[in-house]
Design brief:
The chain is built from seven helices and nine strands. It is an alpha/beta fold. Helix 1 packs parallel to helix 5 (105-114).
């Protein structure tokens, strides 16, 4: 885990940072960049293909008072590490049921404030959950959307989370993952200060991967890789590129 003593509490410290900066994070990231919008369209196309081959029941709109167990009857898309709900709302806008889970209560609170109680199409349920130990039954989700979440887990525990995502996906479900790229000779893990000077003593843990390592991570969970795409992070000069992977649960 390196010489930085914070590494032993990487997830806890990162979660505390997100609790602290949730409002600021939402304001800085509310606009979806083209690479994410394009990947959502591709992800939804795969969902439709799978549902055409293995239809799901039409249950109408869920009531406001149903339990999480009852909500799972709708076989939602899992937004794994949903943050403040931007991507969950974009998926719901495609007419989908979405379950957004995150380990930061601050981020979930912000997501709840930004998500109308009644959406014009689709629906969303948020829940506090750890990707390493998802409190969900097997094969309960029609697809897995995991944007910039696994990168906050130490590399040695990421395969456990990836296996959990595979476990809760139904057969044929599409899986979209966004990670940060690692160049040759670069650190594989480090803490990165939150990029707003007004927010003091706030840092996030990041794990970085080569393209081959990202593909191996998905393979470790038995996923069938469909495509790997790399694109620049234009928000910060010199920031490591993004790697986006699209896969399918066999």
């Amino acid at each position: 885990m390196g010489d930085d003593p914070r590494m032993w509490q990487a997830v806890e410290l990162t979660t505390a940072t997100y609790d602290k900066v949730a409002r600021n994070f939402a304001e800085r990231n509310e606009q979806m960049r083209p690479a994410w919008a394009e990947r959502i369209d591709e992800f939804v196309d795969l969902l439709r293909e799978n549902e055409a081959q293995a239809p799901l029941p039409e249950l109408g709109r869920p009531g406001d008072d149903i339990t999480l167990e009852e909500y799972l009857n709708f076989v939602p898309v899992l937004d794994a590490g949903c943050g403040t709900g931007r991507d969950a709302r974009a998926l719901a806008a495609q007419g989908l049921p979405v379950l957004g889970v995150d380990l930061s209560q601050g981020m979930l609170d912000e997501a709840g404030e930004r998500t109308p109680r009644r959406l014009p199409t689709g629906f969303i349920r948020y829940a506090l959950m750890d990707l390493r130990r998802l409190e969900l039954p097997d094969a309960c989700c029609r697809g897995i959307w995991c944007s910039a979440s696994l990168l906050h887990l130490p590399r040695k525990t990421a395969p456990r989370a990836m296996a959990e995502l595979a476990r809760v996906a139904r057969r044929g479900a599409p899986v979209a993952i966004f990670l940060k790229a690692r160049g040759e000779g670069d650190e594989a893990e480090r803490f990165v200060p939150y990029p707003v000077p007004e927010v003091s003593q706030a840092a996030r843990f990041y794990a970085f991967y080569t393209r081959a390592e990202t593909e191996a991570l998905l393979a470790s969970a038995g996923m069938d890789l469909l495509e790997t795409r790399e694109f620049p992070d234009t928000r910060t000069t010199g920031a490591p590129p993004w790697i986006s992977l699209l896969a399918r649960r066999p």
